[in-house]
Amino acid sequence: MALRYWGVIFILGLGWGMSFMFNAILLRELGPLSVSLGRVGLGALGCWAYVAFCGSDWRLPRRTVLALLGFGVLSYAAPFTCYVLGQQHIASGVAGIVNATTPALAVVAAHFWPGGERATFLKSTGVLAGVLGMGVLSVPILQTGGSSQIWAVIVTLGAPLCYAISVNVARRFRGIEPVVLVAWALTGATLCLLPMAVWQDGAPSHLSLATVGALMVLGFVLTSAAFIVFYWIMPKVGPTNITLPTLIAPASALFLGIWVLNEPLLASHLVGLGLILFGLLLIDGRLFGWRAPA
Predict the structure, then answer these.
(1) Are 81 and 36 in contact (CB under 8 A)?
(2) Fewer CB within 10 A of the terminal residue: the chain, N end or C end?
(3) Which among 108, 126, 99, 76 has a CA at the least distance from the CA of 248?
(4) Mean pLDDT of 229-236
């Protein structure tokens, strides 16, 4: 893989890890549903602008459009909301580590999905390592009796679960230009969250420049631009290398939370992160010279 592609992969992983830090900043002035709404709304706007600039054909059959709108609820509205709901009680670094369980949950979902790929011994071992990592991560919370934090971890775990299911659902949309797919899906997420955010959080009365800036970066850069770059580079680096941001994002979330937000660093964070990343390597097969099928 060319060096410039390695740079893009690293930036994607770093950026998606940063999203948890921006969530924490936004939660200081916005409700959780408003944070999610801002992210998917601006993300949809950015994707539609790119579609218009490129002159892509955005017109699809009505049934496909409705399916994509629903797909957006599963792929974007639900997981983004799970993250911000959980981050009201847990650190951004912990949320980023929980997010790293996505490939492990995807293995489980694919194994039981009709027509899905059956789990191998290596993949099953990787899932077990991920579960152990989550257990280590939760030990300090159990010791301190933080019931709200335990529930926050469980709610946050709903996000990678949504991703694991959506990966299998996405198979029915093969043949659709990826940016058009994401634009319609983010639109569906926006339509879903808009009434709920207005009902639950109301209209924001005053937002600081830091909040507005964080929301713009989260929506335009880390959602629309990141997904556009993701789909641009995927055919260039292959289906195996495109999973590398998953290894970078949790470490990025953890250390940015410590450096920028002054969040505590516990030994359980590092051990849990190490187990989850080891599980990801087992699932991917790199340690044994084995490659996952495309």
Answers:
(1) yes
(2) C
(3) 99
(4) 79
Cα distances (angstroms) measured from residue 201 to each of 6, 44, 79, 193, 256: 41, 21, 18, 11, 28
Lowest-pLDDT range of 91-95, 99-103, 253-257: 99-103
Residue 159's φ and ψ, nearest 5 degrees, are: -65, -55
- Beta-carbon contacts of residue 156 (< 8 Å; ≥ 6 apart): 82, 83, 85, 86, 87, 90, 94, 95, 98, 99
Quick one: which of 244, 269, 194, 145 has its CA closest to 44? 194
Q: Would you state the pLDDT for residue 191?
A: 97
* CA atoms within 13 Å, Cβ hemisphere of 46: 22
Q: Which two tokens stand for residue 27?
A: 């939660």
- Provide the token pair at 174: 């093969």
How wide is the angle at C-alpha 189 spanned by C-alphas 130 and 237, nearest 5°? 55
The pTM assigned to this predicted structure is 0.83
205 touches 34 (CB < 8 A): no
How far is it, in rounded angstroms, from Cα 61 to Cα 252? 40
**What is the rounded radius of gyration, in angstroms, for the C-alpha atoms of the chain?**
19
The token pair at 240 is 């195996």
**Is there a contact between 273 and 251 (Cβ–Cβ < 8 Å)?**
yes
Mean pLDDT, the chain, whole residue set: 83
Say how far apart CA 234 and CA 251 lie, in whole Å: 22
Q: Is the pLDDT of residue 67 over 60?
A: yes
The span from the CA of 145 to the CA of 147, in Å, is 6
